[in-house]
């Protein structure tokens, strides 16, 4: 057994694990995070995609001991404060799922894309999701959902119309002088 410490969805877990235990099995069987499905155990389908230290990985190809000291985000860790992540909302609104089995992996892979490219083209979305298989949807609504989520995230980052934006400027120096008539004038 090997002792590991890993932060998953914001919580630190310390466990003894078999060195050969896959991260997907650790997440599901030990931590009860069943939102990450086991699809193929061969890295072909991408259903088990999670974020490990900032990058999307297929958790059936990573050992739990390799995540030691790292940070994992699963589909269950995306929602914050009871509010869905924009990708989760877009997948729902754009009908980008049918059976839902591939959806967690698709969302996690798309999240990785949007971190690097906040305004992808449809072709870039398709390329980024090549390692994630869907047997139900035909991918059109998935691509639409990723593009909709990207637009929403850009909208959220944009300043409010009419909002005052602060700019770093040189401090304005004003001085006063006394005129010949004894009045102060601003310079």
Question: What is the distance, rounded to the nearest whole angstrom, between the alpha carbons of the first and last residues?
Answer: 77 Å
Average of the residue pLDDT scores: 89
Order of helices and strands: EEHEEEHHHHEE
3D shape:
globular
Q: Give the strand order of the largest sheet, numbering strands 1, 2, ... along the chain.
A: 2-1-5-3-4
SS-based structural class?
alpha+beta
Radius of gyration: 25 Å
Strand content: 15-25%
Helix percent band? 25-40%
Taking pLDDT < 50 over at least 5 consecutive residues as the criterion, the unreliable ranges are 169-179
- Overall number of strands: 7
Largest sheet: 5 strands, mixed
Tally of contiguous helical segments: 5
What does this structure look like?
This protein is α+β, with helices and mostly antiparallel strands and 187 residues long. Helix content is 29%, strand content 17%. The protein is built from 5 helices and 7 strands; from the N terminus they run ββαβββααααββ. It has helices at 23-30, 86-93, 103-116, 122-128, 140-157, and strands spanning 2-8, 11-17, 49-52, 55-58, 71-73, 176-178, 184-186. The strands form 2 sheets. The protein has a 5-stranded mixed β-sheet with strand order 2-1-5-3-4, with helices on one face. It has a two-stranded antiparallel sheet with strand order 6-7. A hairpin with a 5-residue loop joins strand 6 and strand 7 (184-186). It is globular.
List keywords for this structure.
alpha+beta, 5 helices, globular, 7 strands, two-stranded antiparallel ribbon, 187 residues
């Amino acid at each position: 057994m090997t002792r590991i410490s890993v932060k998953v969805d914001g919580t630190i877990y310390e466990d003894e694990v078999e060195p050969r235990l896959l991260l997907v099995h650790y997440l599901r069987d030990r931590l009860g995070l069943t939102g990450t499905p086991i699809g193929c155990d061969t890295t072909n389908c991408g259903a088990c995609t999670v974020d490990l230290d900032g990058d999307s990985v297929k958790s059936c190809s990573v050992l739990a001991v390799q995540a030691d000291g790292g940070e994992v985000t699963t589909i269950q860790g995306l929602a914050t404060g009871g509010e869905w992540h924009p990708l989760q909302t877009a997948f729902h609104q754009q009908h980008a799922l049918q059976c839902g089995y591939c959806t967690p992996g698709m969302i996690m892979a798309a999240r990785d894309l949007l971190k690097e490219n906040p305004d992808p083209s449809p072709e870039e979305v398709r390329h980024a999701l090549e390692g994630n298989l869907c047997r139900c949807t035909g991918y059109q609504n998935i691509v639409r959902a990723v593009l909709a989520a990207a637009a929403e995230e850009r909208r959220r980052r944009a300043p409010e119309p009419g909002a005052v934006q602060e700019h770093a400027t040189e401090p304005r120096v004003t001085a006063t002088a006394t005129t010949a008539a004894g009045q102060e004038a601003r310079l």
